Amino acid sequence: MSADNRLEFPIETVPKSGSSYVINEHVRWVRMPLPMSLNHINLWALGSNDNLTLVDTGMHLDDTKTAWTALLTSENLSINDVIVTHMHPDHIGMAGWFVKNHKTSFSMSRTDYLQCRMLSADTGDDVPNDAIDFYTQAGMTLAQIDSYIKRFGFFGSIIHPLPHSYNRLKDGDITTINGMEWQAVEGRGHTMEHLCFFSKELNMFISGDQLLPTISSHVGIFPTEPEANPVEDWIASCHKLISVLPEDVLVLPAHGRPFLGAHKRLNALIQHHEVSLQKLYDALSEPKRSVDVFNVLFKREIDDSNLIMATGESLGHLNCLIKRGLANKHIAEGVCWYEQA
Ligand SMILES: [Zn+2]
Ligand SMILES: [Zn+2]
């Protein structure tokens, strides 16, 4: 079942990396490069060219800085305010650069701001024992843990140092830009306090990573909060968005193309996770470790490059089954085993 068959993508033009496309007098679609298989991010410049509010910024890389500098000059754009949807490097990476070099304001949710400051502060530190225990309990091998240790702190390396102060935005807050009201709508599960922005008047919804047309966002667990239940948070957020958004809203996602069919997509995402939970429950008729259920949850091959994400996502679904009273876990010789309750 391909989501592409069911959603509509009404905007024909897709801006090339480093360039932009004017959707209407209030919204400009900017694309910036990412050095991964997911090779782009969409950013949204709202308002008039001489007074723009930028929603999300791009990853802090030389390529992005060069592209931004060229774009601001060639299109004669002036960015005065920066808002980010959440703390991931592709979204927040350049925020500090804009504040420093363009004297912009900087707004985001409190939880994501604090968590981002905390995670970037880890860069250069030793890996905490809690994290090694966490991945050992999940069933990772010594070689895999070694490879994790080598990459520890990478997060901070692709984010420009964050400003030491920010403006807090929270669920329901209205930001008026160029006479248009944008309402912050909080989502959970991908990060702790992800903000999306809905303009009733324009019938447009800047969704960040909370609602994407073709890929399902990462919903998983990290060593800082091993007992978290982000899958339930994510499913609840999908239901919430169905109640907030009209079906004919134009969704402006961070990855992929603007689309129509918000409710269809949200229902498909809910379904996707519920089906995964059911399959996972069935697989737990025999005790399994987190690393034993990858084939139940993922179609793609899991290797060193996506092992941490996959482990986090499988733990997320296992925790959800535990919280629903459907599974138990026990620790034997430092490794967690899960089975049906
Ligand atoms: Zn994200
Ligand atoms: Zn993203």
TrEMBL record:
PANTHER family: ENDORIBONUCLEASE LACTB2, METALLO-BETA-LACTAMASE SUPERFAMILY POTEIN. Pfam families: B_lactamase-like_C, Lactamase_B. SUPFAM superfamilies: Metallo-hydrolase/oxidoreductase (SSF56281). Gene3D superfamilies: Ribonuclease Z/Hydroxyacylglutathione hydrolase-like (3.60.15.10), Winged helix-like DNA-binding domain superfamily/Winged helix DNA-binding domain (1.10.10.10). This is Metallo-beta-lactamase domain-containing protein. Coiled coil: none annotated. Residues 40-255 form the Metallo-beta-lactamase domain.
